[in-house]
Amino acid sequence: MKDEKKTRAHSARGQKESEPQSAEERELVEDTQRILRVQQFTKAPKVQQRTLTKEERKVLLKRSAEEKEATARLDKVADKGPLGRWFYRLQSGRDKITPAMCIVALGVVYGDIGTSPLYTMQTFISGQGGLANVDRPAVLGMLSLVFWSITLITTVKYVLIAMRIDNKGEGGIFALYSLIRRYGAWLAAPAMIGGAAFLADSVLTPAVSISSAVEGLRTLPGLEQVFHDNPELTLMITVVIILVLFSLQSRGTESIGKVFGSVVMVWFTFLAAVGLANLSQDWGVFAALNPAYGVRFLFSKHNVAGVALMGTVFLSTTGAEALYSDMGHVGRGNIYFTWPFIKVALVLCYFGQGAWMLRNQYNGDYMGFVSVNPFFQMMSPGVRCVAVVLSVAAGVIASQALITGAFTMVSEATRLNWMPHLQVRYPSRTRGQLYIPMVNRVLCVATLLVLALFRDSEHISAAYGLALTVTMITTTILLSVYIWHDRHRVGAVVFLVVFLAIQTMFFIASMSKFLHGGWFTMLLTLAILLVMVAWSEGTALEREQRRHMKPADCLPSLEKLHADECIPYYSDNIVYLTSDPYTKRFDTDIFFSIFADHPKRARAWWAVSVETSDEPFTREYSVENFGTDYMFRVRIRLGFKVSQSIPPYIHQIMNDLVESGELPRQQMRYPKMDADPNIGPIRYVLIHKELMPESRVTSGQALALNAKYAIRHAAGSPAKWFGLSPYNPVTEMQPLFLTTYKPPRLRRV
């Protein structure tokens, strides 16, 4: 109402200042006022006078106070000698440790590896033909292989080596590739394969972790009959939990991580406690710390499973890749600080299960059963109820670790132009914590598809882990390249030989699952890989065609069109969205769009690029007008916590330029939807490319381009991400000007 009164008062003053002398002029003014009165039914997108909201100022003030408090506290510690100064340097760098983020790290990072004790030893017993065939050499051999696999793969490779190699705090195979891609184009192949395998495993992890945990409800005495009468009940409960889990992703990993972190702390404490309770009856299992037991049993005739045993051992290391991928979410220092507690708890639990197996090898209650789960059986019935509840929670947390890792991987792939640009949200205060709605929906649907296809964890586990071995192998190759070029060539060779040999054994052993479900994992990996290859190849072909113009080349034509009154206005303002961040040049796609078919004459043309800054609440823009009042190149920078809806900012920029005199005032003759007294109608234009039928490309290149355009269509339109949908944006298709075939000349008859 206040805006309407101001508008009316302004109109009245304007009318008094320029009172018409004739009746015709007076009637014309009255008609104009009646037409413009319709503005009260529309609202132009507006921005506030302040650059920060009240809530944002509170967040920044709180963060500033916390930083000052931390600095003051560290200054006091720094005065206490070398240890204090070391702690000061630690807390000032990337290895910073905070209690809150340590809790988040527990919830976000360790879920997957924390569920391994649920099924690793059960799979070992099944592979050996039952508990009766598992004697002391077998148990000590298995425990030795598990301990040294966790030590070498998780601790040495990932925690001590891989996590020291980060890309501005980000981890994962794509971040690693970004550091070393200058050393050879061939490095893209292992990076793509490993990333695709990791994303495929992100689909299987929620299905196998949650379903295996929920199936533990069947072991409770009071629920056995219920699940026996309703065989689909387990599947239904799993589906409900998965739907709830994926629906919570938009809240961010910080809020989820704090809740999950407390549960994980209880879970690993519980693992250590039940392990110690069983170890107290046979401390001799610690002889398995000698690696000779593992090597001897692996190659002995007593090992019924043969080399396939390594596939079971590998289950104890699943989740190691998540430590590296989620490093950007929680910080490297917090993982360093929490990993010793995690490893000790895992070792105590595995060795406690080993002690129980030795004590119950000839127990008549388990004779005749091939599959026995020592994790649940080594507990009393009362404790088992607690274990089932905690294992369900741990299964959910295991899924969370892979989901957050998938978000990070897709974000990295987008930066490499291996995947389409998707809408990314940052629901938490930390830049590394992100949420991608499209990826979340795809993962949810794919996980439910896996459950519908395999039904239970026994069949899902046949496909589980195979893809992750591929990721580990490719990560080893890329890490070796980095170490080699970091002037540690002997270390690079040793690293490659040792870890490639171990992980190749894991891969060969996991391939035994191929016909029992591993085919699905590899098929899913291949599908994701094809998406990345198609997008990468299609983008490379488009870049070969893309050109930029200097202002001196395009301004004469634009000036002539701007002054040509024979051509009606297409719109007062034509706004093009471009991904080009440079404001001193002009995209040829926009130039051809203006002059294509019927020239698009306008009072002003705008080329706008939108960037996301590393600060949460940045709101700034820069403008290049090339010395004109009709051609503007705008660069908008928004913080990662700021809404990407740009129409209000476009109106602000235009009004700012009107006030500064750089843009002539655009008087509106008729009402429009986004009514603004100083700005005429705005038409938003998006440009997409299409392959010409006669383009000189190979069948593979044509397939890559067509696949890219199909993926782009499925990924969604930028018009929705930038809040343009209500303003009827125009999407133009332009031909991709590659070299074309010249058909033979026609003969006139």
Description of the structure:
The protein has 749 residues and is α/β, with parallel strands linked by helices. It folds into two domains: 103-537, Up-down Bundle (Amino acid/polyamine transporter I); 546-736, no CATH class. Helix content is 59%, strand content 8%. The chain is built from 30 helices and eight strands. The strands form two sheets. The protein has a six-stranded mixed sheet. The protein has a two-stranded antiparallel sheet with strand order 1-3. Residues 1-29 are annotated as: Disordered. GO terms for molecular function: potassium ion transmembrane transporter activity; symporter activity. Residues 14-29 have a biased composition (Basic and acidic residues).
DSSP strand tally: 8
Helix fraction by DSSP (H/I, runs of at least 4): 55-70%
Tell me the radius of gyration. Answer: 32 Å
Instruction: Let me know the CATH homologous superfamily of the largest domain.
Output: Amino acid/polyamine transporter I
CATH topology of the largest domain: Amino acid/polyamine transporter I
Order of the strands making up the biggest sheet: 5-6-4-2-7-8
Low-confidence runs: 1-18
Structural class: alpha/beta
Largest sheet: 6 strands, mixed
Text of the CATH class of the largest domain: Mainly Alpha
Overall pLDDT score: 81
CATH architecture of the largest domain: Up-down Bundle
Shape: elongated
Q: Structurally, how many domains make up the residues?
A: 2
Strand content: 5-15%
Distance between the termini: 74 Å
Oligomeric state of the chains? Answer: single chain
